[in-house]
Write a structure and sequence with these properties.
Blueprint: H1 4-10, H2 17-32, H3 36-58, H4 64-75
Helix pairs in contact: 2-3, 3-4
Length: 80
């Protein structure tokens, strides 16, 4: 499957890039130091990206399969 950034660019939803980059930063920070504060920040960042994705889905910019793929990729490495 295509990389998430490719989907954003191809589907013209690159406005999510900043939120996605912030999520990746918070994910890396959480994986290095698993504190409650880091987890809370990561959760908020995920919910923001997810809200943008749901909006893109409802506007017809992405498909349900792409939404599910992106969600799975975002959560990768977070389950123990």
């Amino acid at each position: 499957m295509r990389h998430i950034k490719e989907i954003f660019n191809q589907k013209d939803i690159s406005l999510i890039d900043n939120e996605y980059n912030e999520f990746l930063h918070k994910k890396e920070k959480y994986l290095q130091d698993k504190t409650n504060d880091n987890y809370l920040e990561l959760t908020f960042a995920y919910e923001l990206v997810d809200a943008y994705l749901k909006s893109a889905l409802s506007d017809g910019y992405i498909t349900l399969n792409e939404l599910q793929y992106i969600r799975n990729e975002l959560k990768e490495g977070l389950t123990e």
